TIGR03067 domain-containing protein
Amino acid sequence: MNIYLIVLQLVCALSCGEAGDATNSTNQSSLQGTWLAQSESQNGKKWNVSFVYVFRGDKVFFTDETGKEVMYSFKLDTTDSLNFLIIQPDAALNISAPISIAYELEGDSLKIVIAPPGLRPTEISDKNDQELIICKRKSL
């Protein structure tokens, strides 16, 4: 009887993994393109911004308001209740540890949440010193 439970658990675990891979693949392709950041907020204080994220393959290029561009490698983690971009900064930035950034993707709207250094976002919000960035897909 126990062998059947073990087999059932293994099948469930494998199917969940496949579903996670499918979600990663779908989100990976849906993220591709240019996203214009429109606003940023933290602890209820909101301001307008005008920086750009360009997702190409497994790279994201971030251009700030001064025109400076930084490239990151990324992979997706959709196995938790929140979806995460696991960002690996470029070696030139002298940051070796990957950074977890929560995201919510709905059509042409992308919300990005960055937690304070050393922490991982806990929700899609600007609470607890998290930065919430609202982006819209750039039309061609």
